[in-house]
Structures are given as structure tokens and as C-alpha cells.
Amino acid sequence: MATTEIKASSSPAALSWARVCKECGQQHEGQDTHLYEYQDEVDDELVCHICLQPLIRPMDTPCGHTYCFHCLSNFLKEKDFCPVDRLRLQLHQCRPSSLLVRNLLDKLNVMCPHYAECQQQMQRCELQPHLHNRCPVFRRLREEAEKRKRPSWHELKGRKNDGESSGDDKHSAALSRNPSRDPSEPGLINPAYEEMDDDNTPQRSSLVAEANVVELFREEPEEDLGLRIVGGRDTPLGNIVIQEIIRDSITSRDGRLAPGDHILEVNDVSLASVPHARAITVLQQPALLRLTVMQEKGFKIRDQRSDQQPSTSTAPQ
């Protein structure tokens, strides 16, 4: 059995949001050299023979050895043989390890790098969602970084005073070009206001939301919808929200959903106050899915049926 000795995480006061890794929560060099604090000893078969740590992105060599992808690629930049048996080796001859090995690695128990305050332990594959959704230290670092990016009230006030004279000139010029507009008419200085296009198509010009029903159809029960969601009762976000839509997926081809939409119901099953895992299970139902979603009013739906044949991935009428 291999004993993994990982340096303790720096104190929260010494951490920097710009330098901390968004995947493992540690400060380290490079993008793939992630550091984890393992709770138990790790079997030797799951340890890289170069860095002597549990494998990350494991790669198998033709001669039967397994290394971290980052460790092996760096080694083969200077050498042309396997580090263990010294047989001739090139990176393109190596293949990712089996799903079984990757699952075993994902299930290794690790501690949150901010365990002193967070007091949480989890499987390695769950650490990144924990950091972004539940870890108080990680959330505080992100909020502090966002605050530093925002200008203070005094800076905004100073900019406003500095630009008053030039703003008055621009306003007068605008009135001269548009004499029919009443300067006191509400909404004309709303930054969310947008002019209509020539085809009078509504744009995202309102902050008012409305509920819409979208039907998606899986031709194969195991076919991926192409939705990535965040939120749930067990996260700070609470509601189930679409984070990403995968290109060339069922949802992408349908064109009616967008990142930021709130999923309220699926096949008349409410997703209000349900855990994240439960929401994923509900969305994995086969065949027809009837989604009730909250969308920004004025959202322009991309109607693909006007310029191409109906896709088999959309719900039948």
C-alpha cells in the first residue's frame, strides 16, 4: 500500500483566487498536476511510478505500466523509453486506462483542501462540485475577487461627475437628431432596451420572466439530452438551472432552451426543492420529456423548422 503525503493547504488568508486551482482547490504549478489530500492509503496499483501519487488521467503503456498523463508526457519530452523497464516508448503508443481503473480512482476518498473550516470529506470526483457549490472558503475567495473587480461607489460617482458635461453635449446632440422623442419618456435610457430589428423579431429586452413548455424526444433511451444543470436543494443556488447546452445534442438542435433557463417541472414532476441528484434522475427518463421552464420574456426562439426538415430528436406534434 502506498502512503500519500500531500502538503496541507495554505491558510485561507494566504490563498489567491487567481492562483488557486478551480478543480482541486490547491495552489500548484501547471494545469494537470492536481493535488489531493487522501483520507486513506492507496493501493500501489493505482499509484503513478513517476510522481508516486494516485493516478490522474491514467495512461497505459504497451509494456503494461500506468502513469499520469502529465507525468508521462513530460518524461517523454526528454526520454524515449518507459521509466520502469526502459523499453522504447512514444506517447502516441499509449492509451487511456480502462473505465474500471478510472472509476476506482474517482472513488478515492479525499478531504476538502479547506478542511479546517469546511470539515467535509468526499470522493475525488465530487471535490470540484463541492468547491464550486458548497465550500464556504472557496465561495468567499470567489466573492472577494468579484468585489475587487467592481468599481467602488465613489469611483462611479467620480466618473459620473466627470462625464456630466460631455454627457449633456451628447444628450443635446441626440435630441437634435431625434426631435420626436420626449426626453422624459420612460425606458429610453434603460440599458436593457434594444431596438427591434427590421424583421420586428423580439430580442432579450426585458428582465421579466415567463413560463414556457418545451417538449424533447429521445429516439434512444440512453441518448444524452445535451443539458448540463446546476443547483438543487443541497446547493446554495437552490433552483435547477441550465448551465450549458452541448453542441449537436437533442437540446441544441431543438433550439428552444438556453443557459440560464430555470427548469420548474419535468413531466409534471416539480423540481422545486429537490436535491441535485434527484433532478438528474428525473431528466434521465426515456422517450418524451415535457419541460416547464422559466425564461426571460422576449427571448428569441431559434426556429430551425423554418429552414430545415423536422429532426427526429424533436417531440412529435
Automatic annotation (TrEMBL):
Keywords of this entry: Metal-binding, Zinc, Zinc-finger
Entry-linked InterPro entries: PDZ, PDZ_scaffold, PDZ_sf, Znf_C3HC4_RING-type, Znf_RING, Znf_RING/FYVE/PHD, Znf_RING_CS
Region (Disordered): 149-203
Pfam family, one: zf-C3HC4
Residues annotated as domain PDZ: 213-285
PROSITE patterns reported in the protein's UniProt record: PDZ, ZF_RING_1, ZF_RING_2
Gene that this polypeptide is encoded by: LNX2B
MF terms in GO: ubiquitin-protein transferase activity; zinc ion binding
Entries under Gene3D superfamilies matching the protein: 2.30.42.10, Zinc/RING finger domain, C3HC4 (zinc finger)
Biased composition (Basic and acidic residues): 149-172
Name of this protein: Ligand of numb-protein X 2b
Domain RING-type: 48-86
